[in-house]
What we know:
Strand order of the largest sheet: 7-8-9-6-2-5-4-3-10
Number of helices: 7
Helix content: 10-25%
Amino acid sequence: MATLTNIQNYNYGLEKVFPEADDFLPLLGTDYVELYVGNAKQSAHFYKTAFGFQSMAYAGLETGVRDRTSYVLSQGKIRLVLTTPLSSHSPVAEHIKRHGDGVKVIALWVDDARQAYQETINRGATSYMEPVVERDEFGEVVRSGIHTYGDTVHIFVERKNYNGLFLPGYQPWFSAYNPKETGLKYIDHMVGNVNWGQMNTWAQFYREVMGFANLISFDDKDISTQYSALMSKVMTNGNGRIKFPINEPAEGVKKSQIEEFIDFYEGAGCQHIAVATDDIVFTVSEMRKRGVEFLYVPGSYYDSVWGACRCDR
């Protein structure tokens, strides 16, 4: 199951430009992330209580949607959509049956969803959703989509002609229960775990199909413990707002965390969502008060990461 972890203390205003990225789309940012979950209402309560997300929008039977229920949560620039099927025969139900709760859609904000779709299809992407125009009294949104690793998809969202809250088909979700935010600002990066020998394949996909550049690479000597190891290539778009590390297992005494994820998730998928905060001490302290459990990380880990990233250079 994908987790909302790896909180970063990062200044979003200091964007770094990567001219080696083709950036032909271009991508303006992360629009939303949609998770398929067994109980969207219950999950929404958890994300509000534990992480401080706020009620934003809703779609379901009351809004004319017959096959699913979706709750939209927001905090900072982050929008999460939690979706539950209303039928055991729906694609949403099949996804949950195989993977459990997890990320299905990584939606990317673009200026032209038709062009983004055609450009990526021409470069070898597999279609998930041809361009669709969705309208209501607030204007129109154009969306299109392509497949990526495992059952994960990218949806391109064009909303320059839309003034509504979220998307057509959604209504405002008013709730008397909105706990205080915990300081989350935006999505820093989203990690994809892929199987043995697939890291370079998907790094090439992001480079050739979506115009990304390889920001940094790690081999099993950079990221390893006594028992576990992994390899990773971090792919970024030209403005640096979208970063997708692609991880694959590496040989170790025991199974790596990447291989364990693939075994339990039953395939490649988005392993975690890294989010930024301006005050990591406040954010972590506040979440601990709400019952969020954090991994114990020895001090030597940060020394190793500092050296591997060559942050002093």
